[in-house]
Amino acid sequence: MLNNAENDKSFAQSRALEEVRPELEKLKFKVCSRARNFLIAKLNNLRKPKTNFQIIQESILLRYKPLVHFLRDHHLETYTELTSIYTEIMDSIYYA
């Protein structure tokens, strides 16, 4: 919503948006924080020995693809952190 509001000039300059913007930013930060913790917990399931990682990828992780896209669009640092964690886990699986 905030991105759409910034594209519309009349709405972007409205007083209502200026009053709500700090709360929206806090909410976005909270969502990104909880999404990060949630996805790290899901990624840590891949670290368990004798885990069928393909099933976890297809049945669990793929379900949260929109959440990852949200993080990429709204909090690039978290997205980068999650991709590096995933890469590290998959690297240890394939090259162990």
Q: What's the structural blueprint in terms of helices and strands?
A:
Layout (H helix, E strand, L loop, with lengths): L1 H6 L1 H4 L2 H30 L8 H7 L5 H10 L1 H19 L2
Helix pairs in contact: 3-5, 3-6, 5-6
Quick summary of this structure?
With 96 residues, the protein is mostly helical. Helix content is 79%, strand content 0%.
| Apparent shape | elongated
**Structural class by sheet pairing and helices:** mainly alpha
Q: What does the largest sheet look like?
A: none
The whole-angstrom Rg is: 18 Å
Number of helices: 6
Mean pLDDT: 88
Strand percentage lies at under 5%
> What is the first-to-last residue Cα distance?
44 Å
**What is the number of strand segments?**
0
The portion of residues assigned to helices is over 70%
Low-confidence parts, pLDDT < 50 over ≥5 residues? Answer: none
Query: What's the number of structural domains?
Result: 1
Would you list the SSEs in sequence order as H and E?
A: HHHHHH
Description:
The protein is mostly helical and 96 residues long. It has one domain (2-94). It is 79% helix and 0% strand. It has helices at 2-7, 9-12, 15-44, 53-59, 65-74, 76-94. Helix 3 (15-44) runs parallel beside helix 6 (76-94). The radius of gyration is 18 Å and the shape is elongated. The mean pLDDT is 88.
